[in-house]
Amino acid sequence: MTLKVYLSGEIHTDWREQIIDGCKGLDVEFSSPVTDHGASDDCGVRILGAEDQKYWHDHKGAMVNAIRTRKGIADADVVVVRFGEKYKQWNAAFDAGYAAALGKSLIVVQMPEHQHALKEVDAAALAVTEDPAKVADILRYVLTGKLP
Questions:
Q1: Do 57 and 44 form a contact (C-beta atoms < 8 A)?
Q2: Contact partners, residue 105, CB within 8 Å, separation at least 6
Q3: In 68-139, where do the E strands start and end?
Q4: Based on CB atoms within 10 Å of each CB, which residue in 38, 51, 101, 138 is the most buried?
Q5: Which CATH number fits the domain 3-32+73-144, given the four candidates 3.40.50.300, 3.90.1010.10, 3.30.450.190, 3.30.530.20?
């Protein structure tokens, strides 16, 4: 069985690589949003044309990025959402809600200090952890039935 996993959330650490490395040898296909911050921010205006107001600049980018995000989440068996410490990741919270609304299996990765702020997101998740390596352990268990 191939497991399709969408990796959503913060882009400033190597958490995606930790999960992918931890799943070597497993039948897992990973996808994610564009993780180049500049490309993600500017895709709308670079493709569709410049905007004078920052709101419309961001709006165009959000709409173009949503094409990839919606497809990735819709095709996924499992959605992993990482909330990092550097920024407030409203987009990650939106992705978690979208995944939950679609009935996707949701795993949240977050720091302890975010527990209260993310309590509703955590309530929709099937697993919550602080450690990306635990996500790989979960996926290994789901695919093989073997404990770490």
A1: yes
A2: 77, 78, 79, 126
A3: 78-82, 105-109, 127-129
A4: 138
A5: 3.40.50.300
